[in-house]
Design a protein that fits this description.
Elements: H1 7-15, H2 19-42, E1 66-73, E2 81-82, E3 88-89, E4 91-97, E5 103-106, H3 108-115, H4 119-144, H5 151-154, H6 164-171, H7 178-206, H8 211-276, H9 282-291, H10 297-307, H11 325-337, E6 341-343, E7 354-356, H12 360-378
Helix pairs in contact: 2-4, 3-4, 7-8, 8-9, 9-10, 9-11, 10-11
Length: about 375
C-alpha cells in the first residue's frame, strides 16, 4: 500500500518535520537496525571470523568484539557501494571492531564469509532491515497525508495497558503504524468484552439480594448493557466502513496502475519498433527494450513473443514463461559481457533484471590504464 521511498525522497520528507518528530523517527529506526545487527551477531552459529580481503591484527580475531555498525541499500540498478575487495555493490554493510575501531565495508557475500555463516542468513538480515525502512516510509506517508489515527487510541477506556511505544507515538504526534492500529483494536475489543463480563458478574450477584433491590439494579445493568452494545456496534460499524473504503481505494489504485502499465507497455513497443524498423535482429530487439527502460528479461520475452512475431509458446513449468526467455537472457548477457549492461543483484531463477551500465566510460578507462600498466611491466 505504501510506496517504498528512495534515500533522497526519504530525506526530503524528513526535512519538513519538526526537530522532535525527526529525532524520534531516526532514533527508532536506528534502534530497530541495531536490534537486527545484535541479533545476528548473537547467533550461536557465529563462533569464529575469517580474514576476508584484509589482514586482521591479533587483537582483532575475537568475534565478540565485532559488530555490524551500518548498512546502505543504494537502490535497484545502483552500484555506489564498494566492498573491501573493490567490487561495486548495491547492498553494503559496515562492520566495526569495538576496541580498535577498525571498519570494513562488505557486500553480503563477503560479509557471510567474514562471519562464517550462510548467505541466506545475510538475506534474512536485509529482509528485516527492509521491514524497518518500510515502516518509516509508512509513517512518512501518513504524516504527509495527515492520517494519524489518534481516534483508535483515544477511545480506549483503560490506557494503562497500552504499550509505551504506542503511547510515545501519540505524545510525539507521530501516526500509528498499521500493526499498532491492529493492537489498539485488540485492546479496545478486550476491554469491551471484559466490561460486558463484569456486568454479567454483577447481574449474577444482585440476584442474591432482595427482590426489590434486585429489580432496580437489574434495570440499571440492562441500561448499561445497551450502552455497551451500542458502543460496540458503533465500533464494529466504523471498522466495517473503514475496511470497505480501504478495499475500494485499493481496487481503484490497482486498476489505475494496471491501466498506466498497459499504456507504458504500448508506448514502449511503438518506440522500439520505430527505432529498429522491420529488419532488426532478435538480439537488437531485446537490447533496445533495456535501453528504453524495460529491465525485466521475463517481461521482454512476453512482449517479443506477443508483439514482435517470435515464438509464442509457453513452458509447462511452474514459472510458465515463454520459450524464448533463455534466448533473451543470452542476448542481454552478451551486452553485459561487452560492458553495456549490468545484471542487478536481485536477479534470481524466476527472472533476471538488467540496467544500462552507468560506469561504462569509467570501466573502459580502467581497462585502458590496466593495459598500459601491463605494457610498462613488459618493457
Amino acid at each position: 500500500m505504501y510506496k517504498k521511498l528512495s534515500a533522497d525522497e526519504r530525506e526530503q520528507q524528513l526535512s519538513v518535520l519538526t526537530t522532535e518528530q525527526r529525532d524520534f523517527l531516526e532514533i527508532e529506526m536506528k534502534r530497530g537496525r541495531r536490534t537486527v545487527f545484535e541479533n545476528v551477531m548473537r547467533d550461536e552459529k557465529i563462533t569464529a571470523l575469517k580474514s576476508i580481503d584484509i589482514t586482521l591484527q591479533v587483537d582483532e580475531m575475537n568475534v565478540v568484539d565485532w559488530l555490524i555498525s551500518d548498512y546502505d541499500d543504494f537502490g535497484p540498478g545502483n552500484l555506489d557501494g564498494r566492498c573491501a575487495c573493490g567490487r561495486r555493490l548495491r547492498y553494503m554493510f559496515t562492520v566495526e571492531h569495538q576496541i580498535t575501531r577498525t571498519k570494513i565495508q562488505y557486500g553480503k557475500d563477503h560479509l557471510s564469509a567474514f562471519l562464517n555463516i550462510e548467505v541466506n542468513e545475510i538475506d534474512g538480515v536485509i529482509n528485516d532491515l527492509d521491514k524497518i525502512d518500510y515502516e518509516l516510509d509508512e509513517l512518512l506517508w501518513k504524516i504527509k497525508n495527515n492520517e494519524y489515527y489518534n481516534e483508535y487510541y483515544k477511545r480506549i477506556p483503560d490506557k494503562t495497558v497500552v504499550s509505551e511505544s504506542i503511547k510515545k507515538h501519540f505524545e510525539m504526534n507521530i501516526p500509528f503504524l498499521d500493526r499498532q492500529i491492529y493492537r489498539l483494536n485488540k485492546y479496545f475489543e478486550t476491554q469491551m468484552e471484559a466490561l460486558e463480563e463484569e456486568q454479567r458478574k454483577i447481574q449474577r450477584e444482585v440476584e442474591l439480594e432482595e427482590r426489590q433491590e434486585e429489580r432496580r439494579r437489574i434495570e440499571e445493568l440492562l441500561k448499561e448493557k445497551k450502552k455497551i452494545e451500542a458502543t460496540l456496534e458503533a465500533g464494529r460499524k466504523a471498522l466495517r466502513e473503514t475496511e470497505i473504503k480501504r478495499q475500494q481505494e485499493e481496487n481503484e489504485r490497482i486498476e489505475k496502475l494496471s491501466q498506466e502499465k498497459r499504456m507504458r507497455d504500448d508506448k514502449l513497443i511503438e518506440l522500439v519498433k520505430a527505432q529498429l524498423g522491420y529488419n532488426a535482429t532478435f538480439d537488437e530487439v531485446a537490447y533496445s527494450f533495456v535501453l528504453n527502460g524495460q529491465h525485466s528479461a521475463m517481461a521482454i520475452s512476453h512482449v517479443m513473443a506477443n508483439d514482435f512475431g517470435f515464438d509464442k509458446q509457453l513452458s509447462v513449468g511452474t514459472v510458465h514463461r515463454p520459450f524464448i526467455y533463455f534466448d533473451v537472457l543470452l542476448a542481454l548477457k552478451k551486452q553485459v559481457d561487452k560492458g553495456n549492461l549490468i545484471m542487478d543483484e536481485s536477479s534470481n531463477i524466476v527472472d533476471c533484471i538488467f540496467y544500462v551500465n552507468p560506469y561504462r566510460e569509467e570501466d573502459r578507462r580502467n581497462e585502458s590504464e590496466e593495459l598500459q600498466q601491463q605494457t610498462f611491466t613488459l618493457f
